[in-house]
Design goal:
CATH architecture of the largest domain: Distorted Sandwich
Number of strands: 10
CATH superfamily of the largest domain: Deoxyuridine triphosphatase (dUTPase)
Strand content: 25-35%
Oligomer: single chain
């Protein structure tokens, strides 16, 4: 029969072991953060992979990648025609008809996470624009957005246009941006001084 004293000792040992484990995990997290800050992302990634079980199949930190999640297995990942291309081609998941002088919301069945300091701009494809008068509307993917990427295509022609499943419909371009707080001021010119253009608006620069 186990005595009350033995039980108390066991409980105390368990609590001590859990405290030690928690302390070790916190120290490991600090070490991983320090490794990342010291430009050694691959080491940090490999160490994190051992703990989490996530394969470290890339040399750099995840921050150097456009992370893409397939929402269904048959979705297509964004691609580039050549490594030097600025945009990643996005693919239609469904067949959709865009009416003449109308618009349609095209599904891709993917979600993305853009690298820190960037946002995703959904831009038109030149072939669709020149040959079929198709343009992209509402083209910003914010860094905090993790839902499905959908593409608004507007048809500026007199004919209906059918987007086939697997068609390239737009391109995703990663662009740098700067985030800053808004400050209400009494006068901009008092702070920055007068510029050559001033408040001259549309058409002021000539033809």
């Amino acid at each position: 029969m186990t005595s009350t004293n033995d039980s108390n000792v066991t409980n105390t040992n368990t609590i001590n072991n859990m405290s030690t484990l928690e302390s070790d995990m916190k120290q490991l997290a600090n070490n991983l953060q320090a490794l990342s800050l010291n430009d050694q992302p691959s080491v940090a990634t490999e160490a994190a992979a051992i703990i989490t079980g996530v394969p470290a199949d890339f040399k750099n930190s995840w921050r150097d990648y456009l992370l893409v999640q397939k929402l269904v297995d048959t979705a297509r990942l964004p691609t580039k025609n050549t490594e030097a291309d600025a945009g990643f081609d996005l693919y239609a998941f469904d067949t959709t008809v865009i009416p003449a002088w109308g618009k349609a919301l095209i599904s891709t069945q993917i979600s993305v996470a853009v690298p820190p300091g960037t946002y995703g701009r959904i831009a038109p494809r030149s072939g669709l624009s020149v040959k079929h008068d198709l343009e992209v509307g509402a083209g910003v993917v914010d860094p905090g957005y993790t839902g499905e990427v959908k593409v608004v295509l507007r048809n500026f022609s007199d004919k209906d246009y059918t987007v086939q499943q697997g068609d390239k419909i737009a391109q995703l371009i990663l662009e740098n941006y700067r985030s800053c707080p808004v400050k209400n001021v009494k006068s901009i010119t008092e702070i920055l001084g007068f510029s050559a253009r001033g408040s001259a608006g549309f058409g002021s620069s000539g033809k």
